[in-house]
Amino acid sequence: MAGHIELTIQGKIAIATLNRPEKGNPFDWQSVKEMGNILEQVEEDETVGGLILTAKGNKYFSVGADISLMQNIEGKEYAQFLFAGMKMCETLQHLKKPTIAAVNGWAVGAGGEVAMSCDMRVASENARIGVPELKIGLIPGWGGIFRLTRLVGSAKAMELVLTATNVPANEAQQIGLVNRVVPLEELMPTAIELMERILANAPVAIAFAKSIILSEREVPIHFGETYEALSSILTFLSRDGKEGMQAFFDKRKPKWEGT
User: Fold this and answer.
1) What span, in angstroms and rounded, lies between the C-alpha atoms of 195 and 98?
2) Are 248 and 201 spatial neighbours (Cβ–Cβ below 8 Å)?
3) Count of other CB atoms within 10 angstroms of residue 162
4) pLDDT higher than 50, residue 1
5) Nearest to 109 by CA among 69, 61, 153, 71
6) Sheet containing 128-130: which strands, arranged edge to edge?
7) Is the CB of residue 128 less than 8 Å from the CB of residue 166?
């Protein structure tokens, strides 16, 4: 059976591409399993610095859960599929390496939830992002409401979720849902350039910084500040920390080891 997601490696950047554009790049059991395997591979591969998630086609990033699956399952399998997708999104969000969603079109339902699980989102001008499940009598189940609220605030999230609105790219940028909006033909070059800028920094420091940002809403500020300070000490003591400062004084580019 052909894979639903293609993985390619470009230098230090892994690119995972949803590749069923004729169906809107939906998620089914196979897609969830393949994404889990890809995330594990990216995390363990020391030659890979970060992950870009995108999709084939010029209309859909992902329309969400595969409608043919949703029409033919009962409550037990729906619950199993929901928790599998939720675990996949959590794994994506907490990957130690940076992630960027290059949103090439509509990212709605589970597709929007996956995009929001990435650290950053670069969207094409034709993109829309949303979790419109209320239109069919459901609510998102892969953490979409929580992630949307943390990205745009409770008032705006309340409006978007309860009205089941899919946000156009330019508005998504204005409310902080996406980082950049570019023409479709510039989408991947922009995402790659952004990832290359990130990966010019020390891998250990990237992992700590990402962890601190993700914990910001989960711990009291004094615990967060302490965690940040302790992380700073660890980076100072790391080989990359020593190399980075020495390279600064030597006026040369640092050579990161990831330790």
Assistant:
1) 8
2) no
3) 9
4) no
5) 61
6) 60-62, 106-108, 128-130, 167-168
7) yes
Q: What SS3 string covers 45-98? A: CCCCCEEEEEECCCCEEECCECHHHHCCCCHHHHHHHHHHHHHHHHHHHCCCCC
Cβ burial of 57 (10 Å; 0-12, 13-18, 19+) is: middle
The answer to whether 86 touches 37, Cβ cutoff 8 Å, is no
Residue in 184, 175, 167 with CA at minimum distance from that of residue 122 = 184
Per-residue pLDDT at 72 exceeds 60: yes
Contacts of 205 (CB under 8 A, 6+ apart): 235, 240, 241, 244
Active site residues: 113, 133
Is 0.85 surpassed by the pTM of this model? Answer: yes
The SS3 assignment for 165 reads: coil
Question: For residue 172, what pLDDT is reported?
Answer: 97
Structure tokens at 181: 């909006």
Contacts with 26 (C-beta within 8 Å, 6 or more apart), sequence order: 20, 62, 63, 64, 65, 66, 67, 110, 111
Two structure tokens written together for 92: 């994506």
Alpha-carbon span 225 to 238, nearest angstrom? 20
DSSP state of 105: S
